Amino acid sequence: MEHGDGTGVDAGALGKLPSGVALSWGIVKQSRRGPKGELSIKKIVDAAIEIADRDGLAAVSMSRVAQSLGFTTMSLYRYITSKDDLLTLMQDAVCDIPIPPEEAGKPWREEMKEYVWACVGVFRDHSWYGDISIKSVPLTPGNLQVVDWMLRIMRDFPLNDFEKMSFLLLISSYSRACGLIMRDVIRAEKEGISHEAFSGVGFGDALKQLVTRERFPDLYPILMSGAYTDEADNPINNDLEFGLERILDGIEHYLQQKQSAASK
Fold this sequence. Notes:
The protein is mainly α. The chain contains 13 helices and no strands. The chain is flat.
């Protein structure tokens, strides 16, 4: 057996991959059993995603997915042997997002912003995605394609591999945090909670009676200004975009320090 780059493949190493990951790479041969081969891993995963998008992750079960496709639960197990594997494949599928082509001369800050908001979009469009706990570094092809995108942006940075991976973690973590906030805003709106209530508008007067300068010396002036409950004009506009710009400022400063040290 050979790898795509012509090198030999260590079957023993591949055998150590979790079964769901192996399925995502097509390492496990798909079953041909079943009614006329009408089922496929993709059909099963697409059906599960549709259920999760509509009714939440708790609604996803092998039996529910099978029922939506018009097959028995045992038919699904010929293709995907556990719900955990199904969740892995669902995660990988929604990470298969469009990657913008390389553009010569495009500012790296703009590219990183595109990366962040594309990642946020996964959490926004698939609210269940953040409900699945992280169990390892990304291992599936869809997820790794997104990782590769971020590393492409940093290709010519004067950084070692560990520095690049640390920045990848930093930017991806911020993307996840922003994505979860947007997800929760959308969930709150579906539950009938207004955007104003979510951001604290209207609760300022009550909090001003409860929050004292003595007990909350640093929160108190922020609350009194109206900034905490979003009841004052915000000069920085979008808080999430502002935070991202400050992270990018930090990365830019670090790069300048590295370049300065290298030129000495």
